[in-house]
Every structure is written in C-alpha cells, then in structure tokens.
Amino acid sequence: MGNMEHMRHALAIAKRALGRVAPNPAVGCVIVSRDGHVAGRGWTQPGGRPHAEIVALAQAQTSAAEGTAYITLEPCAHLGHSPPCAEALVRAGIKRVIASVEDPDPRVKGKGFAMLRRAGVEVVVGVLATEAADLNAGFFLRIDKDRPLVTLKIAQSRDGKTIPPRGANRWITGEESRRFAHLLRAQHDAVLIGVETAIADDPELTCRLSGLEIRSPVRIVLDTQLRLPATAKLVRTAREIPTLVFTAADGGNDLRALGVEVLRVMHDERRRPALRAVLGVLAGRGYTRLLVEGGASIWSQFLRERLADRLEIFSACVDLGESGGGTVPLLSGLKDSCAQTGRTVLGADVLESYAVRA
C-alpha cells in the first residue's frame, strides 16, 4: 500500500469520530511499521480524548519505532489534558509523518510539524488535503468564521413539497431514508428545527439506530415567541438530552424549570432570533457540526443568508401536487452554485448530497 491508500484508511476511520468529539477535530492515524505492515490505528475518542495518534501508538507499541505515521491533521504541539501528540510520536521513534493538512488552531498551526522536524522526523504535508479539510470543515469554520458547519437535511416529494397533505402519512420518504437521516444525526453535534416543526411533528430528534442511541445530538429549537409547549417531547426529555431554545422574547422560565435551556439572542429585521448570533453561541460552546432539519421557512432563512454549507436532499418517488406544501423556493436555483458530492439510492428514494460553493 502507498501513501494514498494508507491516508484513505486514516480518513475512513476518522469519520467514526464525527459528532462525538467537539470541540476537537475528528482525526485518524495509521501507523505503518518499517517492514510495511499496519501496526496500529486510531481515531479521536469521545469527548476528544485520547487523540488518534495516542490510540494508534498504544496499538503499535514497539512496532512504531522506525515506522511511518499517516495522520489526517497536524499533530498537536501544546500541553492540554495530555502531552503533545507530536512529542509522543517522537518518543515512540516514528521516523516519518505523512499528514494531510495543517491544524488552523493557533495553539498548533505549524508548531506540531516544527516539533517533529526539530527531532529529525521527516514530515510530508498535503496528502489528500482536500478530503481531510472537507472532513473537518466544521472544525475549520469554528476557528476561521466563529460558526459550525451547517448542513440542511431536506425530505421532499418529487415535485418539491416538504409537507404532506393533512391527514396523510407524516413521512414523505421511506424507511431507508429515515434510517440514513438518523445516521446524519449521529454524525452531528447538534440538530435544529423551527418551532412550527416542533409543534406540528412533536419530534424527539434523537438517534434511534441500534447501537448508536448514545450518539443523539444536542436539540435546538428556534422559537421567536416562546410557543414551544411544555408537553412537547423535546421538553419532556430535556433532562436526559440537552435541549436549547433560542428566542427573541422575554420569559421562558416555565421551560427552564423543566430542564430546557432558554437563550435570548439578537433578533433580525423580522424579530426572529438572528441566525448568525445563534451560530456564534453554538461555536462558542464548541459545536462544529449543525444539522438543520426544518421546516421550509428555516431552510429558506439559512439559504437566504448564505449560511448553509451542505445540502442532503432526500427525494421520494411521489408527487404531492397542490395538496402538498412547504416548498423551498431558493433550493432549485441554489443547486446551480453547488458541487454535487454524492447520489445514493435508498429504497424508492434518492439522496443527493451537495457542497455549497463559497
């Protein structure tokens, strides 16, 4: 296996950490012994510790000596809850580090590579850099723009309706799409909806995939006038799963008494919670990945303010016609300014993934 293959391996295992390591990046590390065998591998553990390099070195043990470490992000060089990973690589006798990208965190930013080079370790940077930057786009955005990565998850009919007719099945898409949507929740730090969706659907916004239940994200509701009822599932489970309500109104003590965190932020011209203010609060708390599940007015607001980075659009094979609602007018035009990154068939549905060009 060459550099590309080992780095693809490191990127693949790094994805396992998404949604569980904020405010840290999701990093993968593969240690190859001097005779060319994979001796250890690791990814950032829940809560951000231990780091990927430490896990991989613990597996490799003495086989790391004279070996090569493939790492998706520059190893840290500062003393935090544990010694610097760059120092640990040197102590283990690693002779070559192949890395994808530099860490933009000012505490690191080139210092990890410098520490390695001073110790005589050969350092190569830039292998699969685009893929690695894409993997940790939320971590980079939090540092560079003081906001998390924003992904809009939209389920719609073939003719672009997101709300089924009254009295019809509440689900537009099929079971396979819904299972994939739960996986998306597991890969994000927080999930956001508007109060209209919270009232109409009364969702739990948890991950209910077998084995991944503990990966439910923080739940967020945008509620301009504090209309979220105390009987909502989000409120009734707020003591088990963190639930935040952003508002532009005074009050909310009834929700606070039930375990909901109510935050008043700046409002926009329509007196709604200002999205940039909301994203700034989330970034300040260390969240790097936000999944926005609706509804149509919330999606449109993110699109209008150019605060959406990714689109995950689930399309069913049915038309709802005039009986359906909840169209997102900006969506069709936006696709022209996006790069399609994937297309997946999920039963009778199709998932199209896009990255919004800056």
The biggest sheet, with number of strands, parallel, antiparallel or mixed sense and barrel status, is:
9 strands, mixed
**Alpha plus pi helix count:** 13
Number of strands: 14
Distance between the termini: 35 Å
Order of helices and strands: HEEHEHEHEHHEHEHEHEHEHEHEHEE
> How would you state the average pLDDT, rounded?
92
Give the DSSP E fraction (strand runs of 2 or more residues).
Answer: 15-25%
Shape call: globular
Short recap of the structure:
This protein is an alpha/beta fold. The chain has 13 helices and 14 strands.
Question: Which features would summarize this protein structure in a list?
Answer:
single chain; alpha/beta; 358 residues; 5-stranded mixed sheet
What this model shows, in words?
By secondary structure, this protein is of the alpha/beta class. The chain has helices at residues 3-14, 52-60, 85-91, 111-118, 129-135, 137-145, 175-186, 195-201, 233-236, 253-256, 275-284, 296-304, 329-334, and strands spanning 28-32, 38-43, 68-71, 96-99, 122-125, 149-156, 190-194, 218-222, 243-247, 261-264, 289-294, 310-315, 338-346, 349-356. It has a nine-stranded mixed β-sheet, with helices on both faces. A five-stranded mixed β-sheet has the order 2-1-3-4-5, sandwiched between helices.
